[in-house]
Amino acid sequence: MKTISSDEFYQKTKQSNLTIIDVREKNEFVNGHIPNSTNLPLTTLAFNTKSLSKDTEYYLVCASGSRSNMAASALSKLGYNVTNVMGGVSTWKGALIR
User: Start and end of every Rhodanese domain (predicted)?
Assistant: First the structure.
């Protein structure tokens, strides 16, 4: 499983269009999320992998990096190309979408 620091991730989002999955619960997501991210809560992730492609690189975020780390570990074992964003949304340098 790959990881990336919040700073590196922020810089990378400025350079290219990334596929970002926010694994926080829906109520957390609507209160502020990283632009262009999709909400796929960790609690339902096991039921939603059919919507994911093993050919796509995904960047996983949560509030602090803990839940996204669990999600990244599980998805990586299933053969998905995932990177955990350390620090999560709480360390995001840009504006959040509400």
Answer: 14-98
Name which of 38, 26, 36, 28 is nearest 94 in CA terms.
36
Q: What is the pTM of this model?
A: 0.96
Residues for the chain: how many in total? 98
Task: Give the tens place of pLDDT for each residue, 10-47.
Answer: 999 999 999 999 999 999 999 999 999 999 999 998 88
Asked if 20 contacts 62 with a C-beta cutoff of 8 angstroms, the reply is no
Q: All domains of the chain, ordered by start, with CATH?
A: 2-91 (3.40.250.10)
Round to whole Å and give the CA distance between 82 and 73.
8
Q: What is the DSSP string of 68-81?
A: HHHHHHHHHHTT-E
- Can you spell out the DSSP letters for 38-92? EE--GGGGGG-GGG--TTSEEEEE-SSSHHHHHHHHHHHHTT-EEEEETTGGGG-
